[in-house]
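ARCHIVE CARD
SHELF: 3
SLOT: left
DATA:
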Amino acid sequence: MEPQNQVTVEITLRPSDFHTTLEWTRRSLLRAGYAVVAVVLAYNAWRFWPSDDSNFMACFAAVLAVLCSYRWIRIRYLFYRFPGMRESRRYTFTVDGVRVEAADGSRTFKWLEFTKIVESKRLFIFESKSGSGRSVPKRFLTTPDDIATLRFLIRQNFNGPRKLRID
């Protein structure tokens, strides 16, 4: 059975669509582990061996902790700085391209305007030639048929590099 030729989804992005602080992935756990170890080492060095070296170690630990949480901080900042990221949008995927409708206007992207399409466990990412991108969280694709139809449209109409899940 061939899927339908259109998927329409209404989305409102939130920071957790891009990064979950307590996500149980190897990368997230390593990042949190490095931050904890750095803070414990710095505290021990500062508490038990007070010297200029322990002050350096405390500064190093603070920098490492910020670097480990940079992605989370950056996403939170973007949502704070650009309120448009929190606005509701309607995406319509068709054979001709992707139509995005928002409160401030609408635009149709042809499939050729995208340079890469990636599907993760939680979202679809459509990268543009300008370096920007569009994200569609899977939580808004209400049925498995919507996800299958979107994958079908991408495979049939997008000729660039793509990384889609099999499931």
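SLOT: right
DATA:
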Amino acid sequence: MWHLVACADPTRLDAHCPVGLELLSSGVDPEGHCLVDGECPRCALANAPVLPPTAPSPPLAADTLAADSEVVQPVAPPVEN
């Protein structure tokens, strides 16, 4: 059987969350569903909200200008003789 290192007491049923209690009551490994500071880290992680993906950053003004404009090369003035 495996427990989290920070498990309050692997031998006590009340040191496990409802999922861990159900597993232990069935004679099965609690699979790390232990209470740590009153919370089961495995359940908390499974129930954590999923953040939406971030949108790509808009291009910088210089990038937009370069992509949308023609590149104009400077012309040297004519040389007088």
